[in-house]
Design brief:
The two termini are about 40 Å apart. The chain is mainly α and about 260 residues long. The protein has one domain (about 35-255). About 70% of the residues lie in helices and about 0% in strands. Helix 6 (about 105-135) packs antiparallel against helix 7 (about 150-170), helix 7 runs antiparallel to helix 9 (about 185-210) and helix 9 (about 185-210) runs antiparallel to helix 10 (about 225-240).
Length: about 260
């Protein structure tokens, strides 16, 4: 997370107060709370997870309140990250069961998904969006306003959660049962690819809402442009019989071999 101001080292109370809001201080506070579960507000984190599906604008409205009260856009409570990690672990174990993996293979898959797919890719996407928003979307680049890296990471987590629920949880019930989306049947890859369309669409829309909520950014509508490519890819996949879920299952099995 980047500081929103540049405090001067003059020893006055305002300078000491500003120092408490530096990127290092915020990061230390966040990481320290990871070790204290009793200090985390899991009820509020669950509320956010619910509204990310029903009314994501309300979630970002809370980020405004945090900026007014705590002088930072990013979360200072890791409860959301902890619950997201639990969701990820449970759903990955579910994938292991559905794909009939052994205990060791499921553990390997879990490590891959958590440390590469979630953390590694999340850090990469967050850094890329942080750079793009600060480089190209600021209304007044000369002023002391910038997008905190921690906020970019939070936006990614917000957008990743619905995608996780749809592709890593809801989809499990369709892979080998119901319409059997892990197959070459038209109905199978139609339903499966539609779930992918909804999940990635959620990710793009919630990402757009996150950066559009920042008053010092402009032209955030460009973050909706990938919807055109997403729609085109969806129609192309249905026409050519591509099955994204089948590809994901094959990829997961290949990883742990």
């Amino acid at each position: 997370m980047l500081p929103t101001t540049s405090p001067q080292s003059n020893g006055d109370p305002s300078s000491r107060d500003a120092a408490r809001h530096t990127a290092g201080a915020k990061r230390y506070k966040y990481l320290r709370r990871l070790l204290h579960f009793r200090q985390m507000d899991f009820e509020f984190a669950l509320w956010q997870m619910l509204y990310l599906f029903t009314s994501p604008q309300r979630v970002y409205r809370n980020f405004h309140y945090r900026k007014q009260t705590k002088d930072q856009w990013a979360r200072d409570d890791p409860a959301f990250l902890v619950l997201l990690s639990i969701w990820l672990c449970v759903s990955t174990i579910g994938f292991g069961l559905v794909l009939e993996m052994g205990v060791v293979e499921t553990l390997k898959l879990l490590l891959w998904v958590v440390f590469v797919d979630c953390i590694g890719v999340g850090l990469l996407i967050s850094t890329l969006m942080w750079f793009i928003s600060n480089k190209y979307l600021l209304k007044h680049p000369s002023r002391s306003f910038d997008v905190e890296w921690g906020y970019s990471f939070d936006v990614h987590l917000n957008a990743f959660y619905p995608l996780l629920v749809i592709l890593h949880f809801l989809q499990l019930f369709f892979i080998n049962h119901l319409v059997v989306i892990n197959s070459d049947w038209f109905l199978g890859y139609f339903v499966g690819n539609t779930l992918w369309l909804i999940a990635i669409g959620y990710y793009l829309y919630i990402t757009f809402l996150g950066y559009n909520a920042l008053p010092f950014l402009s032209n955030t509508v460009v973050l909706l442009y990938p919807f055109a490519l997403l729609g085109l890819l969806y129609l192309l996949s249905i026409s050519l019989g591509w099955n994204f879920t089948q590809g994901l299952c094959w990829f997961y099995k290949y990883r742990v071999q």
